[in-house]
Specification:
This protein is of the alpha/beta class. The chain has twelve helices and eight strands. The protein has a single domain, classed as Aldolase class I (TIM Barrel, Alpha-Beta Barrel). An eight-stranded parallel barrel has the order 1-2-3-4-5-6-7-8, surrounded by four helices.
């Protein structure tokens, strides 16, 4: 499947899931030769705030601000306005139409990604929502609603990437967390895939954290993932 022309160094979005801003920026320095896209989530943003984002952008790297906003539309719109002129590439909100519309109404130029169903969710968690359908059904429903509201893309597990591409087309970004090397520990993720499988199924960007951060040789892991991605793209 053809995807957007994205440099290989930007295909992996490294998850800076750390509470120490200093350690996070040390990782950016260490990895920036191979990875040029970094995810700042709730933990790191609460610990370091905008200075962390500014420092990453100053290194000519991209930032995915993964705060998964979900509130009344007016609050979401005002929150997203704070993202203006910070150099943020992607920002995440939960995949509900009014929330997506409010984020877009802030008109900051930041690309809005709608989170469909967290990769830690499985059938049991979905049933607790009293949703009458499968995980795939819920992902498809939320992706459809979010894209109709104008979202630039979605966050979903790689297992649903192929479904969304086949049903909703190619004109949106797909970002997939839950990426693990073949045989890797899934950790707290239930819906995981290898880098090659995710790209082959239509993902544009892969969010990877622990498999790189905790590796004895992170550079070797990144190189192997890049080879998988390049092979899948051809």
């Amino acid at each position: 499947m053809k995807t957007h022309p994205i440099p290989l160094a930007e295909r992996i979005i490294f998850a800076l899931d750390l509470a120490d801003p200093r350690q996070a920026l040390e990782l950016v320095d260490r990895l920036a030769g191979r990875i040029r896209f970094f995810k700042v989530g709730l933990q790191l943003f609460f610990a370091g705030g905008w200075p962390v984002v500014d420092a990453i952008v100053a290194k000519d790297c991209k930032v995915m601000l993964d705060l998964k906003l979900h509130d009344i539309p007016a609050t979401v719109r005002l929150a997203v306005r704070q993202f203006a002129d910070r150099g943020v590439t992607f920002a995440t909100v939960h995949g509900y139409g009014p929330v997506v519309e409010a984020a877009l109404a802030a008109d900051t130029g930041v690309r809005i990604l709608a989170v469909t169903v967290l990769t830690s969710f499985g059938p049991e968690q979905v049933s607790e929502l009293n949703f009458q359908g499968s995980v795939d059904d819920l992902v498809l429903q939320r992706a459809t609603t979010s894209l109709q509201a104008g979202a630039h893309g979605v966050v979903c597990s790689a297992r649903e990437a192929g479904l969304l591409r086949s049903r909703l087309g190619k004109d949106f970004v797909v970002v997939t967390p839950g990426i693990r090397p073949a045989g890797g520990d899934p950790g707290d993720q239930q819906r995981v895939a290898t880098p090659g499988r995710a790209i082959a199924d239509g993902a544009d960007y892969l969010v990877v954290g622990r498999p790189i951060r905790d590796a004895a040789d992170p550079d070797a892991v990144i190189a192997a993932m890049h080879r998988e991605i390049a092979t899948a793209l051809t």
